[in-house]
Automatic annotation (TrEMBL):
Coiled coil: none annotated. Residues 13-430 form the DUF112 domain. InterPro entries: DUF112_TM. Signal peptide: none annotated. Pfam families: TctA. This is Tripartite tricarboxylate transporter permease. The chain crosses the membrane at residues 12-32, 101-128, 140-156, 163-181, 193-213, 307-329, 349-374, 386-419, 462-480. It comes from Aquipuribacter hungaricus.
Length: 507
């Protein structure tokens, strides 16, 4: 209730509205996913005090998630893999003249799933934080190993590429001055690197600049092939078919979001597979089934709230977007983890309360503003990506007012572009940069206490349990990935069969 008392104050409500509108406006642009949206708008919050900044940030986070569905439905351009299913069914609905119904079920489904998942976060997070207060340094090392290996193995197309990306991030985390010995490491003699590379510069460079270069390089020029919003609005029949899918999507998305098992993209594919199996209208799937939009969109937003459970209670990011949110906390000198609920209780509960408020604002603002978002989709590509690069440069320069940061920004942007081009995921690199120094500190502390005995890392009951669970998580992650690949293969087969049938009819 104290959180709501803070978040409902007029100035904080204004920040929430600004965050929702900005997050949706940037997230709706073609080729821009939630991670890039959050990274791009992260520097905007630096001039605010922490409570206002995180309330605004919560609106940006949820707004970016919602904006991707509009792009997928009307443009058939998913900003990330979690929006592929929405693009498949939602764009087919739009082409059939039911774009309004597709947008409505996505918006209402996002609201229902986001609210239920935030309620689960409210009840679950304090319990986990209380238990986490009993953890020692060896236990934290075990948690860091889980975060490193699962994120590296499950966020990429292959485990080897994910681990390579993680190694890049761990190396970047070593740049600077060693806290224990005072020795400078990998600074190339530059005084500006003595304090290390700012996480915000890395996040904006690898995500925003790298993604802008990648998308601009591979997407064609010319006008956007936009499908007009049309047809009847959300009917009673649409609601009858959608609400069970919303609840099932929430039940699938939230638990998968809380564990390092692939995040929102896995949950959307599993939700889609579940809806296909349970539906009495299997023939509509692949041709614009409303359940194929309602379930995955609910799973996507429920997973977004689920990601905040390990992030706030343990300081562990389970997705690329979560890694950037940790960077936002660290920019204010706040480290997410079990002590967050003790040391920053007013801030945490204001943030959680703002998630409820942000969900309501998304529903109230975005349904009437669909026409405005459609106009944003028609921005010419050269202006769009030039604007993104300029905004990224201004935001990164505002962090430390250093030209070195600008040079690093574009070097890291080129690195992010090269990684995407060669199929390397960028999420593990940011996770390695953020968690690497923390893992190093806890590892050295454990070995110091045990006088160099490495067995201390696995003899703790909690650490031993975590390593056993790590094996189980890997097995579960592989199974979920295979299920996702199977659904993708089925979708490719459906698309190919549809194309062949059209070619046969054409003569």
């Amino acid at each position: 209730m104290n959180g709501f008392a803070t978040a409902l104050q007029p100035q904080y409500l204004l920040y929430a509205v600004i965050g929702v509108v900005l997050g949706t406006a940037v997230g709706v642009l073609p080729g821009i996913g939630p991670a890039m949206t959050v990274a791009l708008l992260l520097p905007l919050t630096f001039s605010l005090e922490p409570t206002a900044a995180f309330i605004m940030f919560a609106g940006i986070y949820y707004g970016g998630m919602y904006g991707g569905s509009t792009t997928s439905i009307l443009l058939n351009t998913p900003g990330e893999s979690a929006s592929i299913i929405t693009a498949l069914e939602g764009n087919q609905m739009a082409k059939a003249g039911r774009g309004a119904a597709a947008l409505a079920t996505a918006a209402v489904g996002s609201f229902v799933a986001g609210t239920l998942a935030t309620l689960a976060l409210t009840l679950l997070a304090p319990v986990i934080a209380t238990l986490a207060l009993r953890l020692g340094s060896a236990d934290y090392v075990a948690l860091m190993v889980v975060a490193f290996l699962t994120v590296a193995a499950l966020l990429g197309s292959s485990a080897s590429r994910g681990i390579t990306s993680l190694g890049v991030g761990l190396f970047l985390g070593l740049v600077g001055t060693d806290a224990l010995t005072g020795q400078q490491r990998f600074t190339l003699g530059l005084p500006s690197l003595a304090d290390g590379i700012d996480v915000v510069v890395v996040a904006v460079g690898v995500f925003a600049v790298g993604e802008a270069l990648h998308v601009a390089a591979r997407m064609r020029r010319g006008p956007v092939p936009l499908v007009p919003v049309g047809g009847r609005w959300f009917t009673r029949e649409d609601f009858r078919r959608s609400w069970p899918a919303w609840l099932r999507g929430t039940a699938v998305g939230f638990p998968i979001g809380t564990i390092p098992a692939g995040g929102a993209d896995v949950s959307t594919f599993l939700s889609y597979s579940l809806e296909r199996k349970l539906s009495r209208r299997k023939h509509e799937f692949g041709h614009g089934a409303i359940e194929g939009v309602a379930g995955p969109e609910a799973a996507n937003n429920a997973a977004a709230a689920g990601v905040l459970v390990p992030l706030l209670t343990l300081g562990l990011p389970t997705s690329a977007t979560a890694a950037i949110i940790i960077a936002a906390f660290q920019s204010y000198g706040i480290q997410p983890g079990p002590l967050l609920f003790e040391n920053q209780a007013p801030l945490v509960w204001a943030l959680v309360a703002s998630l409820y408020i942000g969900n309501v604002l998304l529903l109230v603002l975005n349904l009437p503003l669909v026409g405005l978002w459609v106009k944003l989709l028609q921005i010419p590509r050269p202006y769009l990506y030039a604007g993104i690069l300029t905004f990224a440069a201004l935001g990164s320069y505002s962090v430390g007012a250093s030209t070195t940061d600008l040079v690093l920004l574009f070097l890291l942007g080129l690195l992010g572009w090269a990684m995407r081009t060669q199929g390397f995921p960028v999420g593990p690199a940011v996770v390695g940069l953020i968690l690497g120094p923390i893992a190093e500190t806890q590892l050295r502390r454990t070995l110091t206490i045990s006088q160099g005995d490495p067995s201390a890392l696995v003899t703790s009951p909690f650490a031993a349990t975590v390593y056993v669970l790590l094996v189980l998580l890997f097995v579960a992650g592989v199974v979920l990935k295979r299920r996702q690949q199977r659904v993708e293969a089925e979708l490719v087969a459906i698309t190919r069969a549809e194309t062949e049938s059209k070619q046969e009819v054409a003569p």
